[in-house]
Design a protein that fits this description.
The complex is a heterodimer.
Chain A: H1 2-26, H2 33-45, H3 62-76, H4 81-92, H5 107-137, H6 141-157
Helix pairs in contact in A: 2-3
Chain B: H1 2-25, E1 45-47, E2 55-57, E3 66-71, H2 76-88, E4 95-101, H3 105-115, E5 121-125, H4 129-133, E6 141-145, E7 151-156, H5 161-177
Parallel strand pairs in B: 3-4, 4-5
Antiparallel strand pairs in B: 1-2, 3-6, 6-7
The chains are: A mainly alpha, B alpha/beta.
């Protein structure tokens, strides 16, 4: 019984040790927690060009691994976030950025939805106003009388369950 | 009249939208425009594939129009484009530099021995750093570089005879003239 316990404990320890060995491989190698956090944040902002709907933080593509390595090296070399992003866009273009930069070519991208919303609101307001005006003016004297009599009739009916 | 126009607006908007969607169907999202076109090729210093002790730098290539082809023995489309290069380079119309990307030298050399070697010069990028500097994200990729070392054209994916004929050859003629 005690032998079994020893074996089980041993197996557990081996499993734990292996688990931590693999975990070490997956985590950033930067020792400084602030730098490591920066690496993860930067990697999450950059698009992997091989699997385009993943960031280089998420992607398992070899290129993403290489670019993460680049991030680490540049952070260790003391480069700022802006410098590192500049390094990436100089090579891969604005496409690597999940958040597009603000510049003349991207004005439509940034303001397009707002402009469409304003146009939509304008059209909606106009349509509603036109409808209200039409409803107000299209009633003839006869219609008014009929409406009044209907209302009066409804008034008589009121009070009954 | 005004009323008819009013009803035409959604129809026209729909047609415009459809036109955009149709255009989108024929675009390849994998082809990302390179910011490097029209800019000087990045500096590099890499060992020769045949002689690992000797280095080649970007400065060695100045003064001639050349093509950089990024390839690897593990890359399937590279195998597809290889005969295209072999055929194109039969008469040696241009300096073709092969950048062997993230590969084992032995595998690369075996590939060139078995499948033919179209390259004027082969260089090795073992850790993929030169590839990153050139903005390579998928092999094969091909760059046309002019005499002053400026990248003039980039082709992503396997090279085809059609692209060589329609794009590369006229560009080489133009660059060699000037």
């Amino acid at each position: 019984m005690s032998r079994l316990l020893v074996r089980a404990t041993g197996a557990l320890l081996v499993a734990l040790w292996m688990g931590s060995a693999f975990a070490n491989e997956a985590t950033p190698t930067l020792a400084d927690p602030v730098a490591a956090k920066r690496e993860v944040e930067l990697a999450a902002q950059l698009r992997c060009l091989v699997c385009q709907n993943q960031s280089i933080a998420e992607s398992n593509a070899p290129l993403a691994a290489d670019l993460r390595k680049q991030l680490r090296e540049q952070i260790e070399a003391g480069r700022t976030d802006a410098q590192i992003v500049e390094y990436m866009t100089a090579r891969y273009g604005d496409f690597v950025l999940y958040k597009p930069p603000f510049k003349p070519e991207t004005l439509v991208l940034w303001f397009g939805p707002a402009i469409l919303l304003v146009i939509g609101g304008f059209v909606l307001a106009r349509t509603l106003r036109a409808r209200r005006v039409a409803a107000a003016t299209n009633l003839s004297a006869q219609d008014h009388e009929r409406a009044a009599s209907l209302l009066a009739g409804a008034g008589k009916g009121a009070g009954k369950p | 009249m005004k009323r008819t126009l009013y009803f035409l607006v959604p129809l026209l908007a729909f047609i415009a939208l459809t036109a955009f969607f149709l255009r989108g169907l024929s675009l390849d999202p994998r082809e990302i425009p390179s910011p490097l076109i029209g800019k000087p090729a990045p500096a590099f210093q890499t060992p020769k594939l045949a002689a690992p002790g000797e280095n080649v730098t970007n400065k060695d290539m100045l003064g001639q129009v050349w093509i950089l082809n990024v390839w690897a023995s593990w890359c399937v489309p590279c195998r597809e484009e290889h005969p295209v290069w072999n055929k194109f380079m039969r008469d040696k119309p241009v300096t073709l530099v092969g950048l062997n990307y993230k590969d084992e030298d032995t595998n690369a050399n075996r590939w060139l021995r078995d499948l033919g070697n179209p390259y004027t010069l082969s260089i090795a990028d073992h850790d993929g750093r030169v590839g990153i500097d050139f903005g390579v994200y998928g092999v094969p990729e091909t760059f046309v570089i002019d005499r002053t070392g400026v990248i003039r054209y980039k082709h992503i994916g396997a090279m085809t005879a059609a692209v060589l004929e329609q794009k590369i050859v006229p560009l080489l003629q133009e660059l060699n003239k000037s």
